[in-house]
Design goal:
Blueprint lengths: L1 E7 L5 E7 L2 H13 L4 E4 L2 H10 L9 E5 L3 E11 L4 H20 L2 E13 L1 H21 L1
Parallel strand pairs: 5-6
Antiparallel strand pairs: 1-2, 3-5, 4-5
Helix pairs in contact: 1-3
């Protein structure tokens, strides 16, 4: 969460400069990196997240991502929906690699743990049909307001 730089002046006054990151920033970086992985259809936030997504006009990129951000290290928990027929261990390895690289490159923090929980497996057609149905319900809700 913080990168520290100690600065010493002629009078030997030590000042600490700190760079910190909100958990939301780390979750957003992880979400964007995860979206680049073929085979992950969506991050899944569970039942309550689905309800709140229907009330919002756009999907939250941080949905389904939990982050513990320390001063120099990050641990992440991901909940995902994976495309049927894809090799899930390969998807996991690619996801971990992309997240670690993105977070390290952008923040300098070390990702020490990534846990991925597969909440569902769907064909791409099934996933797109479900999304279309959810979008239609969302539009009807807006019309009623």
């Amino acid at each position: 969460m913080a990168n520290e730089v100690n600065t010493t002046t002629e009078n030997e006054v030590v000042r600490e400069n700190k760079l910190t990151f909100e958990d939301q920033v780390i979750k957003k970086i992880a979400g964007i990196a995860s979206n680049e992985v073929t085979g992950i259809l969506s991050m899944s936030g569970g039942f309550m997240s689905g309800l709140t997504d229907r009330l919002r006009s756009s999907e939250d990129i941080t949905k389904g991502i939990g982050a513990e951000v320390g001063e120099r290290q990050v641990a992440l928990d991901l909940k995902v929906i994976v495309e049927y027929g894809k090799n899930i261990p390969s998807i996991f390895q690619e996801t971990v690699a992309k997240i670690k690289k993105s977070i390290s490159d952008m923040t300098g923090l070390e990702v020490v743990e990534v846990n991925m929980h597969v909440e569902d497996v769907m064909t791409r057609a099934e996933f797109e049909a479900k999304n279309k149905s959810n979008n239609e319900q969302e539009e009807k809700s807006r019309e009623l307001q």
